[in-house]
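Q: I'm a student working through a structural biology exercise. My instructor gave each of us a protein and asked us to get a predicted structure, then write a short paragraph describing it. Mine is DUF72 domain-containing protein. I'm not confident about reading structure output yet, so if you can add a plain explanation after the tokens, that would really help. Here is the sequence I was given:
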Amino acid sequence: MKSNIQIGTSGYQYKHWKGDFYPKDLAVKDRFEFYARHFDTVEINNTFYKMADASTFDEWKNSAPKDFCYAIKYSRFGTHRKKLKDPEGHVNYFLDRATHLETLLGPVLVQLPPNWKKNIERLKEFLQVTPKSIRWAIEIRDPDWLSEELYELLREHNAALVLHDMIPDHPRVITADWTYMRFHGKNYSGNYSKKHLNEIADEVRGYVDDGLDVFVYFNNDLEGHAVRNALSLKENLGV
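A: Happy to help. First, here is the predicted structure for DUF72 domain-containing protein. I'll explain a few features afterward.
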């Protein structure tokens, strides 16, 4: 497979993974090192709730292998409070910190609010100020957005429509030369069956055959299902 496939979990610092994924005697400070032995990417979610200081991004960069990839979730200040209004200020604030990751900075995940109806003009203004040197992934939570108008805008900016399972029968529309997949489970729990994981693997192979880079993150962290599902998918795809 010539394209890049990166598979990981949404977050890694979960207490309930102790004794499951993480050895019981493993210190909290050593969890990332252990995680990075098994995965080459992670989706950082806590930046959504509170933006980390630049020094924290420096620590993340220095603690990771040189080929590691951090997918960073965009601040909810920009998405949920501002609803993408006045984007230059919160985009610059976010990137002033996130770019401390340098080559380890992967996609930026922009999760739009649930129950926010389609506002293409607002998203357009946001994407116009985002640097094209960074990959931007847009996760839609209100089905009203899912339209050709949205897809055309994302294609103009090579931004990926996040393919996820919180919206039933979410369209599998590719809008960039890469794609971003999230698996939330049911209320962030539940184990994906072997059959379902095989179907996901086939979908990923199809994107790879089309020359796309593929980023996959499991968010069903309860009971450690995310780790096991991600490891199973890695094994299936041989990555």
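A: Here are two points you could use in your paragraph. The chain is about 35% helix and 15% strand. Residues 8 and 39 are 6 Å apart (CA to CA). It's a good idea to check both against the output above yourself.
Q: Great, thank you!
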